[in-house]
Amino acid sequence: MHIEMKKIVPLFFVAVMFAVQSCGIYGKYKSETVSADTISVPAYTDVFTDPQLCGLIAVALHNNYDLKIAHEHVVQAEAQLLGTKLAYIPSVYAAPGVSYQSAGAAGQLNFSFAQASWEIDIFGRLTNRKRIANALKSEMLDYEQAARTELVAAVAQLYYMRDMLNSQMKVIDLAIDTRRKSVETMRALKEAGSSDEAAVSQFEASYYAARAQKKDIELAMVQTDNALRKLLCCDSVELQFNGIAADIGSLGVESVNLQSLRHRPDVRAMERELEQAFYGVNLARANCCPSITISGNAGMILSGGFVFEAVGSLLQPIFNSGRNIVEVRVSKSKLEESKYAYANALMKAGLEVNDAIAARRKYQQKVAEYDSEVTALQRAFDATQTKMDLGVGTYLEVLIAQNNLLDSQIEQIRNIYNCRLANVNLYHAIGGGR
Question: What's the CA gap between 127 and 279, in Å, rounded?
Answer without folding.
Answer: 9
